């Protein structure tokens, strides 16, 4: 059975499910940040956080977005609160584009993918994009006021409850938003991923983003608009593009448009600022991004890398189903199981409880005849301190202080998570030892599918070891970088050989021995004296200079 329509629909639904699972952690963070803005900072505090109407609003919104660990779906609840605080359209645009692109985790990961100045240029390029687009939109667009479908824009009242009552109000707000506008726009964003998979058959992008193809950036612009990518996914795809010497301009478009924009974001902006205004904004955005992409395309070509005639970096945007057969159900379960890690399981369990609570609360609001009273329960603004005072050691802390502490706490947690996500090299090598055993034993026994499952994990953990060493030692020696590059190159070649499914076991044994030898040299590079950065090292009669000599 190979019905093209059923194939497209089934593949699109599978990609939509994967996108929803991938967005769960950052969407939860976005809901929490939006609740803090609503109930603790208030409208005035939110305006101050994002620069208000001053000239620094655009770069300040860009900087705040760089610090918060959210994706293009996770920014939606924050955009709703920024809109409620009467921030300018340019500030919303700057935050919406910057927040999904970079965060501490993805920036550190990007250092292992390409030369550091390339990642720095991409970050500066994103600042240039959001500044130009924001200034253009603020100056030339006529944003029209529209009533939000769930937010009480007409009501500027905020709750003045403190303590446990305000915490319950925060939880109730998050639940209502999940089953309200945020949930709707999240589904719209996931729908774009599904439509993209419906129209792009399996393997359609493997030969379309080559370095010497003049149309590669323009082709990527069309793919990136409905696509959805988390910051880490966009960074990993960026690394694969540089590893295979694909088009750097297409990589820039993928990062800015693919990770920064989705159909949900565009739809929400059109809902509140008008179709014509958003059309002008989006046209300006695409012209600037594509122009910068073509300007960067030739200068950022990595030297010494032979272009590959194909890449698998963009297979995630195409239909995962090659053809329908009796094993398609098992294949779908296996694909979803790969994405359904512990973090996703916890977040989806929380969302299930929040969804039930939010549906019950919205039903209760309808029976009362007003869905905004339970959110805006007080008669004063959060900027107005309550009249009652506490005696003894109890003190009423300003809501702005509490909200600011929460925002700073989120940023600190994201920095701490860097050390958790990127463990010490010794811990990474222990994980790689288990992965290596699984991959090599599967390859030698002929189970190529099992081996192909573990090889990308091997690649990822080698990068995490490199970042973990940089975080703890403050430097990575040239020898360590070289051995890491060689290991990942061997793993990439090994994965390609597994796809060919060689029948000769001695040929597979040769590939396994080659990878194992490279892995041994890589592990040795992180042990003294190779891991030292302040002395010369002699390896096989070749002098590896210290960092100070380079």
From TrEMBL:
Keywords: Cell membrane, Membrane, Transmembrane, Transmembrane helix. It is a multi-pass membrane protein. Pfam families: ArsP_1. The chain crosses the membrane at residues 20-41, 61-80, 92-111, 117-137, 182-205, 250-270, 277-296, 343-364, 401-422. It is found in: Cell membrane. The keyword rRNA-binding does not apply. GO terms for cellular component: plasma membrane. Belongs to the UPF0718 family. This is Putative permease.
């Amino acid at each position: 059975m190979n019905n093209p329509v059923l194939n497209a629909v089934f593949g699109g639904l599978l990609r939509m499910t994967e996108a929803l699972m991938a967005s769960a952690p950052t969407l939860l963070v976005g809901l929490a940040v939006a609740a803090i803005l609503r109930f603790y900072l208030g409208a005035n505090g939110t305006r101050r956080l994002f620069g208000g109407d001053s000239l620094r609003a655009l770069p300040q919104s860009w900087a705040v977005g760089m610090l918060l660990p959210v994706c293009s779906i996770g920014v939606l609840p924050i955009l709703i609160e920024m809109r409620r605080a009467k921030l300018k359209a340019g500030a919303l645009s700057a935050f919406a584009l910057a927040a999904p692109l970079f965060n501490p985790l993805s920036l550190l990961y990007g250092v292992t993918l390409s030369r550091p100045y390339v990642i720095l240029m991409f970050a500066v390029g994103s600042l240039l994009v959001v500044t130009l687009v924001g200034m253009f939109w603020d100056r030339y667009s006529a944003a029209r006021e529209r009533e939000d479908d769930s937010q009480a824009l007409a009501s500027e009242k905020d709750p003045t409850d403190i303590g446990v009552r305000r915490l319950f109000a925060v939880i109730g707000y998050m639940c209502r938003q999940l089953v309200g506008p945020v949930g709707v726009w999240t589904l719209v964003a996931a729908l774009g991923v599904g439509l993209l998979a419906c129209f792009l058959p399996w393997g359609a992008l493997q030969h379309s983003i080559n370095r010497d193809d003049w149309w590669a950036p323009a082709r990527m612009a069309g793919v990136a608009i409905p696509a959805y990518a988390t910051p880490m996914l966009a960074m990993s795809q960026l690394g694969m593009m540089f590893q295979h010497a694909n088009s750097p301009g297409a990589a820039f478009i993928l990062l800015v448009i693919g990770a920064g924009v989705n159909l949900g974001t565009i739809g929400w902006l059109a809902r509140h600022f008008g179709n014509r205004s958003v059309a002008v904004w989006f046209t300006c955005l695409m012209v600037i991004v594509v122009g910068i992409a073509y300007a960067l395309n030739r200068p950022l070509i990595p030297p010494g890398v032979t272009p590959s005639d194909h890449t698998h970096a963009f297979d995630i945007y195409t239909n995962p189903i090659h053809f329908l057969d009796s094993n398609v159900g098992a294949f779908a379960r296996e694909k979803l199981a790969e994405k359904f890690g512990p973090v996703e399981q916890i977040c989806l369990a929380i969302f299930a409880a929040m969804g039930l609570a939010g549906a019950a609360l919205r039903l209760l609001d309808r029976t009362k005849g007003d869905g905004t009273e339970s959110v805006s329960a007080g008669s004063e603004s959060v900027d107005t301190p309550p009249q009652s005072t506490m005696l003894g050691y109890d003190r009423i802390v300003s809501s702005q202080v509490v909200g600011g502490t929460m925002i700073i706490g989120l940023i600190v947690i994201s920095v701490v998570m860097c050390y958790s996500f990127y463990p010490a090299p010794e811990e990474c090598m222990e994980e790689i030892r288990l992965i290596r055993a699984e991959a090599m034993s599967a390859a030698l026994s002929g189970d190529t599918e099992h081996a192909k499952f573990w090889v990308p994990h091997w690649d990822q953990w080698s990068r995490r070891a490199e970042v973990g060493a940089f975080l703890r030692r403050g430097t990575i020696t040239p020898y360590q970088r070289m051995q890491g590059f060689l290991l990942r190159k061997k793993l990439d070649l090994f994965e390609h050989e597994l796809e060919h499914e060689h029948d000769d076991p001695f040929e597979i044994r040769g590939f396994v021995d080659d990878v194992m030898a490279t892995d041994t040299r890589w592990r040795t590079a992180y042990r003294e004296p190779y891991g030292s950065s302040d002395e010369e090292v002699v390896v096989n009669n070749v002098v590896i200079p210290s960092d100070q000599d380079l």
